[in-house]
Amino acid sequence: MTDAALTAPAAVEEHEHTGTGLANTKLGMWVFLASECLFFGAFISAYLLYRGRVVEGPTPRDVYNIPFTSVTSFILLMSSLTMVLALAAIQRDDGRRFRVWILATALFGLVFIGGQVYEFTEFYREGLALSTNVFGSSFFVLTGLHGAHVTAGIVWLLSLWAMNTTGKLGAADAEKVEVAGLYWHFVDVVWIVIFTVVYLIPTG
Amino acid sequence: MTTVPETLPAPRPVGLLLRRPRSTTGLWSWFTTVDHKKIGILYGGVALVFFVVAGVEALLIRLQLAAPNGTVLTAAQYNTMFTMHGTTMVFLVGMPLAAAFGNYFIPLMIGARDVAFPRLNMFGFWVFFLGGLFLYSSFFLGGAPDGGWFGYTPLTSAPLNQGFLPGRGPDFWAVGLIMLGIGSVTAAVNFIVTILNMRAPGMTLMRMPLFVWMMLVVAFLTAFAMPPVTAALLMVIFDRNFGTLFFDAASGGDPLLYQHLFWLFGHPEVYILILPGMGIISEILPVFSRKPLFGYAVVVFSGIAIGFLGWGVWAHHMFTTGLGPVAVAAFGLSTMLIAVPTGVKIFNWLGTVWGGSLRLATPMLFALGFIAMFTLGGLSGVTHSIVPADTQQTDTYYVVAHFHYVLFGGLVFAIFGGLYYWWPKVFGRMLDERLGKLNFWLMLIGFNLTFFPMHVLGLQGMPRRTYRYAEGMGWDTLNLWVTVGSFVIAASVLVFLVNVIRTAMRGEPAGPDPWDGRTLEWSTASPPPEYNFAAIPRVEARDDFWHRKYTEDAEGRLVPLPAGGADAATATTAGAPPTAGEDGHGNGGHGIHMPSPSYFPLVMALGLPVLGYAAVFKSPWLAVPGLLLLLYGMYAWAIEPATAED
Predict the structure, then answer these.
(1) Number of A:B CB contacts under 8 A?
(2) Which long-range contacts (CB under 8 A, 24 or more apart) does A123-126 make?
(3) What domains are defined for chain B?
(4) A144 touches chain B (CB under 8 A)
(5) pTM for the full model?
(6) Using the 8-state DSSP alphabet, how is residue A124 labeled?
(7) What's the distance, Cα to Cα, between the start and end of chain B in Å?
(8) Is the ipTM of this complex over 0.85?
(9) Residue A59 has pLDDT above 50, yes or no
(10) What is the pLDDT of residue B646?
């Protein structure tokens, strides 16, 4: 954040007038993300509550493929790195590198979503649907909503890419990239929690 | 606010399909405005219409219950009426009225020209308005909600035609509430950023008017309380439509999960509704007592304490669900605990009034009414923390009496006080005092006639949500009183509406500062100009405007300052337009750069009800235009600069 302040003088002038020193959009995004924590928290709670309550059909132990999900999780986490690089590039007004890194971020996100589609299909083939048992219900809805968030993020990243290619997004708009980055990192962090709590903590 | 850097080419309006709206006056401007004051009026107007609708629903309920074996409503209609009365009062009256006052007065009170996100503000309003219409369209499209305002599972989560609720009511209810939740969260984000970021120089947090403080707490509560209920409602929708088993006990699902998630929202919601009321009367009492608020910091911290403790009491709505003795004892204790900061506030208000030179104008009457009625509601609330007694009272009219004392005796009284107090600021004309006093006394008498007997009825065992009662239960007389009282309340609202019409036609002009106010909104013209303040005020003290008008002599008596007061106020606003240095374009030609009107918040908001109908009727075809509207609105909004270049 201090880097942003050094490299984007136009934006700094803007923020000195705000009470917190944070730009309005950024503060707004922080509040929204705090709100989202409780949204995901509710679904994670539901999943935890229903652990070990499967009456019939596959249990987590029957379907999870931890090595596979670990790989796609790793790719999603790496997208946070490319997101940071994209932000640094736009702050330096380096449009070419910005486009590379933002596309890389979106691509990593897409790989993750592809992995999720594959995983859902596999689970379904093994007999786990939304309506099979409470594990299916709580698992698919939780991870599906996370996937929807990632998808929205990908659309957002691609929109930023398109705006830059058409000359509508320059160094002065670095804040827009930063706000998108906040969202993207949040979605990654939520996945760390989901991966740990849902996949890694063993259940019967 | 982000402005568009000069280096970028001005976007062509043609590329956005809709030409940028220019007009800031006339009917059409109300659809495109981003002015926080107009949006505040829109919130207030629409919420008052819903208030009348919810009132009619309440009157129908009371007609049904006026005598034993009532025949006015069928059982199914009765379910619809109490469900929609509750849902409307909470989501379409209480919250939007607070948003109305917040929108109009937060920027004025903190010395800002607008909110942090003017277009998001408009979006929030349209989502609320369209969400309300969406909920009410259910009456014509396959069944209005009938599962209670709390919508307990599995009653609401059983799939269509497989449960006890015949129609699509629960779908409309769940989708509608999610929509209203989106509107509330956007408004909350906007208020938080506005209050934290947009304060005038010198307006430190501990100099902010109490109303602004309470709205800040409310905004945080809203931002954190809506997500759990949104999650719960999504689970209901999935259970009803996509075969999930969240609340299906036979498959290991847990209907109590819904109650936990709902009340984790539902109890903070109580404070979301009452804290704005507390804020309003904390503004009114000092002005009409001519004394500063007693113990300002204590009132602020009590409000914050209520905001935190409000998260730890939700299970007192669930004492009869078999939570176990430890949980029940803990929530009983926390319920007693939250009465402490509330009690502290009551004493602060009494301390404010004590020894003041009182003016019993209508706003003050409503504020004093609030203190008395809210205290009664608070006391009956504390009785619920005694778990054995609560077990007896659950689902009886005792509970109905309790929360109406809090929400009607509290919130609605404060809202009416606020309406009488700020009406001259918003519309430039005084509401009639004689009609106002009639309004107050009718409401006070009608309110107590309606809700006090309910305590007794509840203790006698009369169950709520039951559409009729047999003869010979000993409930007949009191129920008749209650019904008579409800019509007295209706008469008082009618008096208010007459007062509004009378004022619009021949109300007395108000001037900028009719009540000798203390806060910044009284320092500008009535109604305020679009840019609020010609020059952004510099704040040097709490109640800054008061200190510009008065000083104290050696014995502590008030001495008016010659150059202060209303004269200075008119001089700042009616005087010369602001100085050079700001670029000379933008709205109003006053040299102040205000955000320009926009269609896209409305366009984007229009997508939501279309998607809502797609969800209720499970129609992917309807989802397409909904999604298109949403995306078009979103992208056009993102590309359109906040302020038009001319």
Answers:
(1) 132
(2) A123/A58, A123/A63, A126/A58, A126/A62, A126/A63
(3) 1-31+598-646 (no CATH), 33-597 (1.20.210.10)
(4) no
(5) 0.92
(6) H
(7) 19
(8) yes
(9) yes
(10) 54
pLDDT single digits (tens) B78-99:
999 999 999 999 999 999 999 9
Closest CA to B510 of B367, B363, B411: B363
**Any idea what the Cα angle at residue B537 is, between residues B533 and B538, rounded to 5°?**
170
Q: Are B199 and B112 in contact (CB under 8 A)?
A: yes
Which of A38, A135, A190 to mutate to test binding with chain B, by most B CBs within 10 Å of its CB?
A38
The whole-number average pLDDT for the span B440-449 is 98
Give the Cα separation of B115 and B128 in Å (integer).
18
- Per-residue pLDDT band at B563 (split at 50, 70, 90): low
pLDDT (0 to 100) of residue B553: 82
Helix (H), strand (E) at residue B293: none
**CB within 8 Å: B231 and A172:** no
Helices (H), A8-133: 9-15, 24-49, 60-63, 66-91, 95-125
Which of B191, B197, B256, B593 to mutate to test binding with chain A, by most A CBs within 10 Å of its CB?
Answer: B197
Split at pLDDT 50, 70, 90, the class of A18 is: confident
CATH architecture observed for domain A2-200: Up-down Bundle (1.20)
d(CA B232, CA B507): 48
CB B349 within 8 A of CB B374: no
Q: Which residues have C-beta within 8 Å of that of residue B258, sequence separation ≥ 6?
A: B152, B153, B157, B232, B235, B236, B246, B247
Instruction: Name every residue whose Cβ is closer than 8 Å to that of residue B347 and which is 6 or more positions away in sequence.
Output: none
Looking up tokens 């930063």 gives A178
- pLDDT for residue B584: 37
Token pair recorded at residue B137: 């369209």
